[in-house]
Amino acid sequence: MALSQDEIFEKVQVALVDALGVDDDEVTREATLVGDLGAESIDFLDIVFKLEKSFGITIPREELSPEDILTNSQYVQDGVVTADGMAELKRRMPWANLTEFEKKPRVQDFGNLLTAGDLCNYVESKVGE
Amino acid sequence: MRWLWVDRFTEFVSGSHACGIKNISLDEEVVDEYSPGYPMLPLTLIIEGLAQIGGILVAEHFGFEKRVVLAKVGKALFHQPARTGDQLRYHVKMEATQDNGATVVCTSHCDGNLQAEIEMMFAFLEEGKFTTGPLFHPGDLGAMLRLMNLFHVAIDRDGHPLKPYANI
């Protein structure tokens, strides 16, 4: 039986609470993983393991961390993602809300882009496969 | 001080699980000095012992080609102290792997009683991160594993003894 959006959020919330040591009420759909919830780079690996276990899905590394795009000179110039790069990011991460990032797409800001809601959208796309 | 917190491997099944024992002795300085008047093995060194078994389990699964480091302890429950004269029996089960890390689930028992429950995550250092090159001098890791009797008990998934690794 397909999971509802609320069920997905609750499980994502549990994963983030466990991985980041934050309180339930801090994990809102709008909360950014890095800025609001304090995730560090190593936490993303932990979150991946927890989501895989909780939802029974496989998460290839490049799907949540498009480092190959952000370090590719074809897609980045002077620390800013080019139009081609944005198109590639949107293709790779259709579940992420890139609207704000697109206004000023500096690579250094990408790390603080993802929200708990984005993760829910990503998981929803995976459990529906 | 030598940084060996497992006395002996007692079981090792490649990619699955590993077991080992740790005897607590009063002549270990950390046991005597950690809590004066109440000699016990510091809890962190129980985590370290389990991490050594887990790290080897993970590293062997990847042919000792990854630079495996303990990255995170997700859960650590201790039900009783490990006192002098105790023998801890460690069990570490591989839970999940990625191409850049792995998780394991661990228990420690003493006299048949559950002594500790630990969950931990290992990450693989990318080249150039923190340090370059291998984490061990040539031969050192293999020597440590022989001291711990790993190759006396280690088998692959089919039950055959592990073949020696030339890269450790």
What can be said about this structure in brief?
The complex is a heterodimer of chains A (129) and B (168). Chain A has 129 residues and is mainly alpha-helical.
Features:
heterodimer; A: mainly alpha; two-stranded antiparallel sheet; 8 helices; globular; B: 168 residues; alpha+beta; 7-stranded mixed β-sheet; 36% strand
Description:
The complex is a heterodimer of chains A (129) and B (168). By secondary structure, chain A is mainly α. Chain A has helices spanning 5-20, 41-55, 61-64, 67-70, 83-92, 99-103, 107-110, 116-127; strands at residues 76-77, 80-81. In chain A, strand 1 (76-77) and strand 2 (80-81) form a beta hairpin. In chain A, helix 1 (5-20) crosses helix 2 (41-55) and helix 1 (5-20) crosses helix 8. Chain A is globular. Chain B contains 4 helices and 7 strands; from the N terminus they run E-E-H-H-E-E-E-E-H-H-E. A 7-stranded mixed beta sheet of chain B has the order 3-6-5-4-2-1-7. Chain B starts with 7 loop residues before the first strand and ends in a 13-residue tail after the last strand. By secondary structure, chain B is α+β, with helices and mostly antiparallel strands. Chains A and B meet through helix 2 of A and strand 3 and strand 4 of B.
